[in-house]
């Protein structure tokens, strides 16, 4: 997974040095909006950029509360995605807990039946993936329309500074069965494409894209067999030319 630098307006992808491979493959994976809440949702921490900037700086989610106490992580995108690749920091979670990922079906948050390979007894304990099958009833909606529903009919609205609050997106809500450890760091959370059948192209064949409103968060490369290098170039439009 290769992240796309912020401010990029153009991208080209060229496969090179195929060895034992007939074709190279690529997927363009959506940019994620990621934030977490605590104290009954009154505090919002937006980690979207930090989780997708490609560097090794981590972000703390220390003591992230349970949903009953207003703690949850919201992960959304303009397009559906089948999961997230998670890289933990130097201080991963060691508090025993389990993750449940819910999606919005137009009327309620519904369990996506995720598989969490970061869980060794504690979720976000090791690098891994959180995956689910794409739900047929997953719909776009804005957080303003959704609000937040916390068991037993208790409801609150997310603060007005919640990122992308008014944008219709495919949202998931991540909740844990117990609080996070007092020191829990994560480095990256990158989306995985909804499709498991990526586009194929030949060695030396370049594909080019104009990049819009941070719609693409990362590029995932693979081959049908063997190995390959993937040359990815990006450019920023300055006036009427790229730099």
Explain this structure to me?
By secondary structure, the chain is mainly β. It has two domains: 65 residues, no CATH class; 164 residues, Jelly Rolls (Sandwich). It contains two helices and 22 strands. The protein has a six-stranded antiparallel beta sheet. A hairpin with a 4-residue loop joins strand 4 and strand 5. The protein is globular. 31% of the residues are buried.
CATH class of the largest domain: Mainly Beta
- Given helix and strand content, the structural type is mainly beta
The best one-word shape is globular
Strand fraction band? over 45%
Q: If you average the pLDDT, what whole number results?
A: 90
Annotation, overall tally of beta strands: 22
List the total number of helices.
2
- The rounded distance between the terminal residues' Cα atoms is 24 Å
**CATH architecture label of the largest domain:** Sandwich
Strand order of the largest sheet: 5-4-7-15-9-10
Return residue spans where pLDDT drops below 50 for at least 5 consecutive residues: 150-156
Q: CATH H level of the largest domain: which superfamily?
A: Galactose-binding domain-like
Radius of gyration: 19 Å
Please provide the ordered H/E string of secondary-structure elements.
EEEEEHEEEEEEEHEEEEEEEEEE
What is the name of the CATH topology of the largest domain? Jelly Rolls
């Amino acid at each position: 997974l290769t992240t796309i630098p912020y401010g990029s307006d153009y991208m080209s992808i060229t496969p090179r040095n195929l060895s034992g491979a007939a074709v190279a493959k690529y997927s363009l994976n959506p940019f994620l909006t990621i934030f977490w809440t605590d104290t009954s949702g009154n505090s919002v921490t937006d980690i979207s950029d930090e989780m997708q900037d490609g560097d090794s700086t981590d972000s703390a989610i220390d003591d992230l509360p349970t949903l009953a106490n207003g703690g949850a992580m919201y992960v959304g995108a303009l397009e559906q995605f089948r999961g997230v690749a998670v890289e933990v920091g130097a201080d991963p979670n060691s508090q025993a807990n389990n993750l449940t990922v819910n999606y919005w079906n137009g009327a309620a948050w519904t369990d996506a039946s995720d598989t969490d390979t970061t869980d060794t007894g504690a979720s976000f304990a090791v690098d891994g993936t959180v995956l689910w099958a794409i739900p047929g009833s997953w719909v776009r909606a804005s957080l303003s329309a959704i609000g937040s529903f916390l068991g037993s009919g208790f409801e609150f609205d997310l603060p007005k500074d919640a990122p992308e609050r008014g944008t219709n997106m495919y949202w998931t809500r991540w909740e844990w069965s117990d609080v996070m450890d007092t020191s829990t760091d994560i480095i990256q959370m990158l989306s995985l494409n909804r499709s498991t059948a990526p586009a194929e192209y030949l060695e030396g064949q370049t594909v080019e894209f104009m990049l819009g409103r941070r719609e693409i968060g990362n590029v995932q490369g693979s081959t049908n067999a063997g190995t390959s290098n993937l040359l990815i170039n990006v450019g920023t439009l300055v006036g009427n030319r790229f730099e």
